[in-house]
Amino acid sequence: MYRLLFFFTLCVLLVGCAGSKSSQSLDTPREDGAQTVAVRDSLRAKFVLTLVDTAGKAQDFDAVLFSVPGKRYRMELTGPMGIGVASLLWQEDGWQMVFPTEKKYVKGAGYMIGLIDDSSIPLVPIHQVANLFEGILLPESYETLSESDSAGFHVVSAKASNGIAFTFGSKDGHVAWYSRMGRDGKPEILRFLNFRTFENVETPENIVFEKEGKRFLEIRIKKVTRKKAFSMGTWRLNIPKSYKSVTE
């Protein structure tokens, strides 16, 4: 079970990995064509995470994200009756994730979160975690390789500054979808739906993950609050001595 919840949590963070260019004009273009992202304040977001298994059965989790971009992040997942099922804390000196119902935990260091020796779980660049909730949907710096129009979308093929190739389609001034190859060599698509304004920032209310034409994850944003002052307790995550590491 902890492996499943670990995957849930990383999938949420993976949305942020789609990048750092806004659906609105939050970035300042440079002369070389790259993008510089404006500094953002702290943020709290509430959302519903839906996981769909291979049989098509969906399971919902309530989630909350606390973010001070580039400094620290905290995320909580709760199941039925408000029971906590996973907690993540990332700070500059390291990160940890706890699964209370399983009495398990995992720790690491650096900006990549995941299990290095388990290729079935993605490695996630944590600093991009809050971008989705800021309406930032594409890599902050990329090179455009080609452009075309297809099926009513303006389609751009590009390469991010880290060398990863991706494609995205825009329509009516919004990024509608984003596609890139997964670790298994199969394309993964994120679809951005129902744009709404959350505290003056236009953001997709629904984000759908698809693989091989099937939905496997969906995020529904309920509320985003910016310029929040968080208590110090937000940045503490206790691991009881009785808990065991997921690697044991």
SSE map:
Elements: H1 2-17, E1 21-22, E2 27-29, E3 35-37, E4 43-52, E5 58-68, E6 72-78, E7 84-91, E8 94-99, E9 104-108, E10 112-113, E11 124-125, E12 136-138, E13 142-150, E14 153-160, E15 165-171, E16 174-181, E17 187-198, E18 201-211, E19 214-226, E20 244-245
Parallel strand pairs: 9-20
Antiparallel strand pairs: 1-12, 2-3, 4-5, 4-19, 5-6, 6-7, 7-8, 8-9, 10-11, 13-14, 14-15, 15-16, 16-17, 17-18, 18-19
Percent helix among the residues? Answer: under 10%
Structural class, please? mainly beta
Number of helices: 1
Helix/strand order: HEEEEEEEEEEEEEEEEEEEE
Largest sheet: 14 strands, mixed
Give the overall form: globular
Describe the structure.
With 248 residues, the protein is mostly beta strands. 6% of the residues lie in helices and 53% in strands. Strands 13-14-15-16-17-18-19-4-5-6-7-8-9-20 form a 14-stranded mixed β-sheet, with helices on one face. The chain is globular.
Short recap of the structure:
This protein has 248 residues and is mainly β.
List keywords for this structure.
248 residues; mainly beta; 14-stranded mixed beta sheet; two-stranded antiparallel ribbon; 1 helix; 6% helix; globular
